[in-house]
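hiii so my PI (J.) wants the whole complex modelled not just the main chain, which honestly fair. so below is everything: two entries, each one labled with what it is. i double checked the lines twice but i was tired so who knows lol
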Amino acid sequence: MKKNTFKDSHGRRAPMAWHRRVGVAFAVVFVAVAVTGLALNHSLRLGLQERVLEADWIYRWYGMQPAGEPVGFQLAGGKRAVGLAGALYLEERAVGSLHELRGAVSLGDTWVAAGSREVLMLSRDGDVIERLDGASLPPGEVLAVGLTQTAEGPEAARLVLTLSSGRYSFDRELVGWKVLGSKARVAAVAPIEVPAELRNRIVRAYRGDGLSVYRVVLDVHSGRFFGALGIGIVDLSALAMGFLTLTGVYHVYRRRR
Amino acid sequence: MKAFRLLIAWNIGLLAWVARAEDDVYLAPERFLEETFVEAAGVPAPQLVWLTKEAREQVRSILGHDYPSMRIRYWSAGARTAWILEEVGKTKPITMGLVVAGGRLERIKVLIYRESHGWEVKYPFFTDQFNGIGLDASGRLSRPIDGISGATLSVNALTKLGRLALFLDAFVRKAQAP
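here's the output for the full assembly
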């Protein structure tokens, strides 16, 4: 008797066996795509565009939640410079990127913020006057920030950076610098505790307009919520749906015979 | 199931490969300056050019956006000026060293590259195209630059910086003219 090549070990025809397997394997994905698709189709009625998510975990998942703890320094005029997640803020206004804020001081009509590798010179309102990096700074990593203390008073104070290579004072325009002797008097700049309300304002600024429910549902629907793997799975599910359609039609055809 | 596991492994590998992109420092900026002024008695003291309203408008027309600072540092010796400028390629800034002499680009060098694609622009076969190039009457480069397939955005960024360096050189020369 000729072996029946259309049936598996349980007596089911091979296409139908695979129909069941694929259906089970992608069941969760099919349901998720269907539910999110329905929601997207009725997003206007459901108001998904206007609903903004607030949970921190979703922003962490999207990389829109600033990591780490803020570091703050007091400036003249009651304003505060805050470093958080590689960015520098004047109050809640983002003024530029700066890695690991080490200190910030007011210098006349300007203020200076020093990260571990860069220094920003800014106007009082937070406009970037210049960014100084390796070509314009003494060698080494910035460890601390301070101001010279002289008899001429605070108006004559100059920026002092303590780098891994030594201690340096800068001229007013931060063009020239010289090695500072060990006997020179320097007022070190100490960090302040960043109030929770200021941190919250910065976090909201960091998030921009925030994440709408529509955006998240759309990303789940497309698989992008889970990254490249999710996109691949959703692509496979699309192919699987086509396969199930073919095997379903095949099943109907076979039954009629 | 074996095929599915292979797919998952492939995806994980893809994610790992994408995540490996990081800053490539091809030449430290301070080293670029030392090389540029090797014939002088060391790197000259830096100078500053403040961008006036008119200059900012010109810069905006070159870059398509405002320059991210109000003043730009440069180094000058004789008829040569050296600039260290940055422009975003696709998502991250590319740091370039550019030397202008006599109103023409003498040298350009990719110092730091942070993009995940388009790193071909660092090679001399591409950057040497800029040697001797100037600006025409309309402010465009005096010669076209051949692009690189797959690196269009980085090519555009370098082209903009070339134009910017030439404009800035002319700007400071004009300001210093008696």
